[in-house]
Amino acid sequence: MANMQATSLPLFPDLPTAPVVGIARMVADSVDVDEGHLVEFRSLPVRSILNRVVSRRGLRFAWGINPYRGCEFACRYCYARYTHEFMELRNPADFERKIFVKDNAAWLLRQELRQVRPGEEIAIGTATDPYQPIERRLRITQSLLAVFAEQRGLSIGIVTKSALIARDLRYLCQIASSNELTIHMTITTPDAALARLLEPRAPRPDIRFATVRLLREAGLRVGVMCAPLLPGITDTGPALNRMAELARQSRACFLHANPLFLKPCSKETYLAFIREHFPALEPMYRTRYESAAFVPKAYAERCRELLRAACGKHGIGQRRDDKLLTSNIGIPPSLREEESQLFPLNALAGVPRKPPRPVALR
Q1: Average pLDDT over residues 35-44
Q2: How far is residue 239's CA from residue 242's CA, in Å, rounded to a whole number?
């Protein structure tokens, strides 16, 4: 019998291979634009920057903008890791090590703002932080704010953990002079050591509180988002009282908090953190999140009651429900009056606008 020779032909040549389509195809065609420590950055030639938000949680904002896919902050609990699965990147660590930069973001936004109807809200940073470290060099978020600074009558919200947002104070003030702008600074815990374990590359909590105060002194509407509340770790009355005290000291307009929810994409990453640093809590977490990503209603209500008590004690407002932006945020009347004095409407309408420095993606 003749010897069989190895061949590179497919085992079943008549069966077609699945084509790479959609965003996975964009990833396959992407090119390097930058590099960092154990992180790679690639361009993503998207066709849209303004996306309809569809959420089972009933989030009430209509549009979302994420200038980047993936996030360097590497938060252990991050629910957005699943977004990399759409690109056929299924290792949870890829979310923080392979960051995609959306091409032509400002140009796309200028075209797509025509779709936004009166009363609809726009949230920046619904899945990934718009001020993660690469923004310092590429300035994609800044280019979007320059577009928003040209608009009138929009409702815009920004969510971030980064002090880098203060770099864009000029644009933020221009936006707030003619639009409704609410900024949420996420601060999960005031404990710097715990924060470093939870959010390895995010700024320290004290730096974030200082940024809240800086933005408030500019007259902007800024609140603290204590999210997520971690069962058995940060979900206690004393912990929320301390958050409310620090939020008030930073002159935050409101404090919001909601319990941890664990999607399958983030569950094992977070539980590995628990197993390493809080091993006694692992059985409780396994039981609580075994069959559901969200906590029971009774536990969620208990958290709301603790938050109400803490905010009442320290005289700070609360954000209502899950709504990202609203003119009816529960800000105490004293702060509302202070806000109007600090930042009268249209105070900066006539200030010349300096365009952001363009950065070429290579």
Answers
A1: 80
A2: 5
177-197 pLDDT, tens digit each = 999 999 999 999 999 999 999
Q: Domain of 41: which CATH number?
A: 3.20.20.70
Residue 28 buriedness (CB in 10 A; 0-12 / 13-18 / 19+)? exposed
List residues bridging with 225 in a β-sheet. Answer: 186, 256
Q: Under a CB-based contact definition with an 8 Å cutoff, are residues 235 and 259 in contact?
A: yes
Q: Which domain holds residue 300?
A: 29-342
Percent of the chain beyond pLDDT 90? 63
How many CA atoms lie less than 13 Å away from 111 in the CB half-sphere? 9
Per-residue pLDDT, 81: 84
Whether residue 323 lies inside any domain: the answer is yes
Q: For the segment 270-285, what is each residue's pLDDT rounded down to a tens digit?
A: 999 999 999 999 999 9
CB 240 within 8 A of CB 306: yes
Distance CA 30, CA 69 (A): 13
Whether residue 10 is contained in a domain is answered as no
CB 67 within 8 Å of CB 109: no
Sequence-distant (6+) residues with CB within 8 A of 139 are: 356, 357, 359
In order, the DSSP letters of 15-78 are SPPPPP-HHHHHHHT--EEEEETTEEEEEE--S-S-EE---TT-----EEE-SEES-TT--TT-
The total number of structural domains that make up the chain = 1
Length of the chain: 362
CB contact set of 250 (below 8 Å; sequence gap of 6+): 209, 210, 212, 213, 216, 224
Q: Model confidence over 93-121: pLDDT tens digits?
A: 888 889 999 999 999 999 999 999 888 89
Q: Which two tokens stand for residue 204?
A: 């320290």
Q: Strand, coil or helix: what is 309?
A: helix
Please indicate, yes or no, if residue 201 is contained in any of the structural domains: yes
Judge whether 351 lies within some domain.
no
